[in-house]
Backbone:
């Protein structure tokens, strides 16, 4: 017997990290907002900040402290240059790391960009019952991550399991 489940819309914040773009030029952030709203989720808030670990950490911390923000997705600042610090800004906030996300993202990315994917420091975790996804800044990376990994895991109807059904248990001790 198959049990039908209703879609559960989530409140998702989107943060673009860039020293060179403005919100008007933020195609990766636009793509993520279009995708999340297109499937029925709600944009909680959107921001664009420079590659500054402390500004990034402050924004993400504010969202994970908000009781009505369910997910934070960042795009940008995941490379290897001196200014790329999004993983360092966000990962210290994790209560738990979702190791499989980075592994799956790089495996998926390998099909498109080959060995260049080893430069990706995409990661994910959970902090204070909020899911965090740290993505590269390219629109292709955001599209691949959302379409092939994040969207289905943020859909309560996805079987055999999904991240949404775990949400009530994230703060168990």
Residues:
């Amino acid at each position: 017997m198959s049990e039908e489940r209703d879609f559960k819309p989530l409140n998702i914040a989107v943060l673009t990290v860039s020293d060179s773009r403005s919100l008007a030029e933020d195609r990766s952030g636009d793509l993520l907002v279009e995708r999340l709203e297109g499937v029925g989720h709600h944009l909680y808030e959107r921001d664009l900040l420079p590659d500054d670990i402390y500004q990034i950490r402050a924004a993400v911390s504010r969202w994970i402290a908000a009781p009505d923000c369910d997910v934070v997705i960042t795009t940008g600042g995941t490379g290897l240059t001196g200014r790329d610090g999004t993983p360092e800004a966000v990962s210290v906030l994790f209560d738990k790391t979702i190791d499989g996300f980075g592994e799956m993202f790089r495996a998926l990315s390998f099909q498109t960009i080959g060995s260049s994917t080893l430069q990706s420091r995409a990661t994910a975790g959970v902090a204070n019952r909020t899911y965090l996804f740290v993505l590269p800044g390219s629109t292709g990376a955001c599209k691949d991550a959302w379409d092939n990994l994040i969207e289905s895991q943020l859909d309560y109807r996805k079987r055999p399991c999904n991240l949404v059904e775990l949400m009530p248990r994230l703060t168990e001790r």
